[in-house]
Specification:
It is built from ten helices and nine strands. With 246 residues, it is an alpha+beta fold. Strands 3-9-8-7-4-5-6 form a seven-stranded mixed beta sheet, sandwiched between helices. Strands 1-2 form a two-stranded antiparallel ribbon. Helix 1 crosses helix 2, helix 2 packs across helix 3 and helix 6 packs parallel to helix 7. The mean pLDDT is 89.
Length: 246
């Protein structure tokens, strides 16, 4: 019943089956554990030892015979916390190594909603003002509601500023976006509306194609270019358009 979730926590298939069996059986013998879990008796011994090492199983002697029982399931949470702590300890060093080999210029694609989440994480990591050209209010897409809510909390906490040049149509078709992103914002003249949008932040220039007011494509694609000089150039383009827009 819980085998898939237990495996996601980090238990093997046999560990998951045996631990779940012990949760419902209480103190019991290897033979009964093997029968209940469907794990071969020989493998049951090895698996129990591994679970004991993880603190998920304890062994006791009852009438001279060895019995086993599951420990409190909260130990599973502790295991996750320990893994997270160990990971956090090495992340700074991994980032240093990653930065040393990271190319100064990159071009790649983000695809789908998971790709869009990567794009949001890039904004938070860059931690600089974001300039939106031809903004479409596609953050109102229902598929993004949860992700955008979490992102906005982090974005505001970090103090990341937005500057929007919206397409003309957004003013009437999706005015609710204005309250979500806040000022400052302007609108491009009607004759300059298109189905593309460009976001610039840090060293990133991200292009969206096919976006409609309030909605992304069915499978959204973001064309990502990462280059400091390129991003600076686009910021100048933005400033020109901003100054010329009413």
């Amino acid at each position: 019943m819980y085998e898939e979730i237990l495996r996601q926590v980090g238990l093997s298939q046999n560990e998951s089956r045996i631990y779940e069996s012990l949760i419902t059986m209480g103190k019991t013998t290897v033979e009964k554990i093997s029968n209940r879990s469907g794990v071969h008796r020989r493998n049951t011994y090895d698996t129990l030892n591994k679970l004991i090492e993880k603190g998920l199983v304890s062994e006791v002697f009852v009438g001279g015979n060895k019995h086993y029982s599951a420990t409190n399931p909260r130990r599973l949470q502790e295991l996750l916390q320990e893994k997270e702590s160990n990971l956090n300890n090495i992340i700074p060093e991994l980032q240093k190594k990653y930065a040393k080999v990271e190319e100064s210029s990159e071009a790649y694609l983000y695809k789908g909603i998971e790709g869009f989440k990567n794009y949001l994480n890039d904004i938070l990591e860059a931690n600089e003002t974001v300039y939106f050209i031809g903004a479409k209010a596609f953050w109102l897409d229902p598929r993004l509601r949860i992700h955008i809510a979490k992102f906005e909390q982090k974005r505001k906490k970090q103090g990341i500023k937005f500057m929007h040049l919206f397409d003309y149509e957004i003013k009437k078709q999706k005015p609710e976006i204005l309250g979500l992103v806040g000022k400052p914002y302007k609108f491009l003249p009607k004759e300059y509306s298109s189905n593309t949008a460009i976001d610039v932040f840090g060293d990133y220039v991200v292009t969206f194609v096919g976006a409609q007011p309030g909605y992304l494509e069915e499978v959204p694609v973001q064309f990502v270019m990462k280059n400091k000089s390129l991003a600076n150039g686009y910021r100048k383009f933005f400033q020109f358009m901003w100054d010329k827009s009413p």
